[in-house]
Amino acid sequence: MAGWVRALFLSALFAFGGALPAGAQAPSAAQRTQARDIYQRIIAFDTSVAGAQTPAMAEYLAGLFRGAGFAADDVHVLPLNGAASLLVRYRGNGSGGRPIILMAHMDVVPALRSDWDRDPFTLVEENGFFFGRGTIDNKAGVAQLTSTFLTLRAEGFTPTRDLIIWFSGDEETSGDTTSALLAQHRELLGDAEFALNSDAGGGQLDTNGRGISFVLQTAEKTYASFTFTARNPGGHSSQPREDNAIYDLGDALARLRAFQFPLMWNDTTIESFRNTARVFPGPEGAALRRFAEHPGDRVAARTLSRNVSLNSMMRTTCVATMLDGGHAENALPQSASATVNCRIFPGVAVNDVLAELRAIAGSKVDVAPLGPSNSSDASPLRSDVMQASARAVHAVHPDAVISPYMSAGATDGIFFRAAGIPTYGVGAVFIGDADDFAHGLNERVPVSSFYEGLTHWRILVMDLAGAN
């Protein structure tokens, strides 16, 4: 979760009260040791595209579940295109409703040893942090969920509904393992009611290590890229003409720069605007409040549009990100192209955005999709999930304020939402903005935050699938 998101919701207020459930106790010394051992072992697997060790990591984790007494028929390693995913079913008695999916991803982005201060594929505990590639994105979630399942199983706990772990193998790249699960192995999920995603949401620590805010992801914008291409017969540069592929492309991009997609909103953005009105002083705070009270208010939107973070929460955005043109310095260009990346508001069809881009580009520039894209609607703000999340957060960070949010990026959650399974980003990691290096050098997680995440997940499970 990006640092600006935590800052944006610093003073949000979406708190749900209630007594803490019985499962609120801190993890035992034995579970802490178990979770750390799992964490250390899985960090050592280079599960980047280059390392290609998601199959080995999946088999290691599958062995832990089988060794803990999970039936072989409930532990599935699913190979796909050199990667692999893992699905584990913790069977309940059925009295509490339909299954819940608990998600994480095993793969990581690449890390070059020469760039890092420490070996990125060795878990190092130093200065109050765990260092290593994937410590925050997303092997903390994998280790915490695995340890939670193993511990509850050892305690003889029977959930009131089936709990299904889903560890994907290529979230950082194609998302094919999750797509294949939903298209080819949907029966393994049964009639799952919703999913809890450890790869989204999370909390912010202040400089004193106090948890001050938590955002719960309930929506994701669609990631889609397009190519703008202008073509021309070209010719000798000594005889320039008015028609020029580079100029035609430039004109189209200038029109794109000036264009704004229509204002949009959903329950998540309205609730988050209402909450974050408290953190913004002056005109921005007033505009947030006004937009929440009168969705689509154009006066408020003009003020909010000047803030790039807030603007991205109100509409689809498209921006030029790459350029390529010409073939020789002494020749008129025969082609020029640009990559345009869009983050599309939930519920908007990619083809509708494509049609708008073609209208903007005009007749001299071709616009085409650059690879596949995936879209989904926002998840409803379920009171049971919101309340359970609040109890999980407040068990460790009683002063943290909580708000839903919409992510401009994407996770595996977008596939589940598109398949009709509401998904909620409730990741357990609390971290300070200055220490958030997901995808970057010297990725880290506070040691205390990792262990506190065990309490977080236990409470969520006990609250949503434990005996009342």
From TrEMBL:
GO biological process, alphabetically ordered: proteolysis
A family per Pfam: Peptidase_M20
Keyword Zinc on entry: yes
Protein's recorded name: Peptidase M20 dimerisation domain-containing protein
GO molecular function, one term: metal ion binding
Homology family: Belongs to the peptidase M20A family.
Domain Peptidase M20 dimerisation: 219-363
Signal peptide limits: 1-24
Keyword Cytoplasm: no
InterPro entries documented for this protein: Bact_exopeptidase_dim_dom, Pept_M20A, Peptidase_M20, Peptidase_M20_dimer
Annotated NCBIfam families: PRK09133.1
